[in-house]
Amino acid sequence: MSPSKHRTSTDEIVQMDARKTQALNQRAISVIRPPHTQSNGQADIRNFNDPGEEKIRLMQDMRRLDEDVLVGLVRGLKIPAPSLTSPSAVKEILFPANLISLVTNEMWKYGLIPESKMFLAGVMQTIQGHVMSFTGEEAIVPGIFWLSNVHEMRSFICVAESDMLQGIGPGGENAVRSCDWDDYEQLVSVVKHDLDSLECNIYHVWMSETKKKLLKMAIPALIESQSLPGFMTSDGGGGLFNRLLNAIKAPAYSMDNILNMLNKVWESLKSYYMEESLVQHIITELLKLIGVTSFNDLLMRRNFSSWKRAIQIEYNITRIQEWCKSHDISEDTLQLEQLMQATRLIQLKKATAADIDIIDNVCWRLSPMQIQRMCTNYYVADYYGISTKVLRGITHYLNCSPGLCYSSPEPEPMVETLQYENAVSPEVLKIVTARVLANDPNDYLILSPETEEVGPYELPLREFSGLETYIPVYLNVSHLRRLVELMSYT
């Protein structure tokens, strides 16, 4: 059902009051009904004397209901593993939301408004506490799983709110007690608000944990790791002892760690049926964190901006570019553009004023101050023993590989950039420095640092498609299972 538009005119408010009175008199039942089909291979119970009374008894037994839902369905749930090769059906992912909404709807149908309020409060508190118990990379799967389920619960509440605005409320001829419309209206409003807050909290919890982990990975993986065996370097400044130590000590993380985490996030978002707009937003935010953190680190390192190091970093970047391309999100590689252009700058010739003009043209995302810093940091390492043939081979790879294609205004051919390994002269540095304008707000050195703090969360739209009575056979929730059986036939 599509949600109704909110009414604001005086005439509509009068009509609303009339509908409220009509609803109280006629006890219109809320729209959502579970399907009248057998599920989970359970026995037919339609011959029971009064299944309605048994449902009421089961719903009023809050201790056993909470035990099944809060413990069996939330804390003790074995979450289906994310998989794109053999994905689970929608009902196999969203069954917690469906079951919680079924119980809520049935409570409202029988006028158990206070019970539903306590039930939903316990459910939301338990879900939030459960998700917050995970840290680091372990928070990704449960975070996204419950984010999708809470969003499904919210879509159910939105339908109830839409019905309420049309004068359709809870209750029926078998209701335990009469329904106070104002209490019901307040309950729906509060529950929707609380679900909004819960969804935002879940998103911030798992995204914060994910970004915190990526912050630790980004610099070792993109800047320090060296995956090309023919171009290993121990640069990094310091004396001979420090250079030898750097050569022996391997980075704490590699590009495989970064890509594995991106894969885990991607698979979870897709497997748990999150909206495309949110998938795009999350991947963009994570790539921005990787790009900004790595760029700022490279910019502030002295004696680290060498040709060999630039080759290694550029190769690391292309692995992320290829990952984005394989997932049809090539536009997100723009988050790594400054870092890519910094590695290009290191490899470009820097001997004359004309060379600096070319750098300005090729490195169009870098500010004059950033170009000045990169030229100052430029470090001529020991490259003896590398033949011209090898250099040409590298040039051909960098210019022709699909993952390394570089589109910028009139790019400088790489074959010219790799032939020069001279320190930047003081005269050229003066030219670069002269292009830095004092008090220019657009000329900055460091990009705004990315932290584990998460930006605003915009609730995506999701159309409510009805309630399923599916319960996985492995769940030990006999009380809840019995209640759902009765709902299926009455």
Could you give a short description of this structure?
By secondary structure, this protein is mostly helical. 59% of the residues lie in helices and 0% in strands.
Structure description:
Residues 121-400 form the Dilute domain. One of its GO terms (molecular function) is GTPase binding. The chain has 490 residues and is mainly alpha-helical. The protein has two domains: 10-198 and 474-487, no CATH class; 225-434, no CATH class. 59% of the residues lie in helices and 0% in strands. It contains 19 helices and no strands. It has helices at residues 10-26, 51-60, 62-75, 90-93, 95-109, 113-132, 140-165, 181-224, 240-248, 255-271, 276-300, 307-326, 337-347, 353-362, 368-377, 388-400, 414-417, 426-434, 478-487. It starts with 9 loop residues before the first helix and ends with a helix. Mean pLDDT is 82; it is low at 1-48, 237-241, 382-387 and 403-420.
